[in-house]
Amino acid sequence: MPKKYVERVGDDGFKKQPIGLGPYKFVSHTPGVELIMEANEAYWRKIPSVKRLVFKSVPRFDHARGDAEAGEVDVAYLLDVPQALEVKRDPTLKLAFSGGIATFFLDFLDQWDPKSPWADQRVRLAATTPSIARR
Predict the structure, then answer these.
(1) Residues 77 and 65: beta-carbon distance below 8 Å
(2) Which of 54, 55, 63, 83 could form a disulfide with 79 if both were Cys (CB 3.0 to 4.6 A apart)?
(3) Element housing 49 (H / E)
(4) What is the DSSP letter of 85?
């Protein structure tokens, strides 16, 4: 965290508009709903070719699958085995290995809405690593 920025805007200001040195810039965050980021055109390394990332929280598999089938979602991950097998049987979807046994993501833990479905620990514990993507 940039100390001078945090001193200027305070902890609450940083939570609303965080900044960092990565390839993407924070745009907005709605707890339990979505996180939007855009490519940082001033990034000191290679500028990302994907210009906008929208991470959506979709706690129900049938909704995520429907979004993937409708072309609304490019990638869904953290499927359990029965869900992965269901995706594998669908010729319009592609089941792909996510590249490792770890998943890395960005969390704003103290910004979570307690009414969010993701606040339920059982939902978080149900996550595994297979991924789906549209063909």
Answers:
(1) no
(2) 83
(3) none
(4) H
Q: State the Cα–Cα distance between residues 2 and 85, nearest whole angstrom.
A: 45
Q: Using the structure block, give the residue that is written with the tokens 């965290």.
A: 1
What confidence tens digit (pLDDT) does each residue in 91-121 have? Answer: 988 888 776 655 566 665 555 566 666 566 6
Query: CB count, 10 Å around CB of 31?
Result: 18
Burial class (CB in 10 A: 0-12, 13-18, 19+), 63: middle
The answer to whether the Cα torsion of 50, 54, 59, 64 is positive or negative is: negative
Closest CA to 26 of 3, 54, 50, 58: 54
Please give the model's pTM, rounded to 2 decimal places.
0.60
Q: Whose CA is closest to 18, among 37, 43, 46, 39?
A: 37
Contact 52, 38 (CB under 8 A): yes
Q: From CA 96, how far away is CA 133, in angstroms rounded?
A: 7
CA distance 115 to 31: 10
d(CA 21, CA 65): 34
Which residue carries 């869900």 as its tokens?
A: 83
Distance separating alpha carbons of residues 101 and 93, to the nearest angstrom = 21
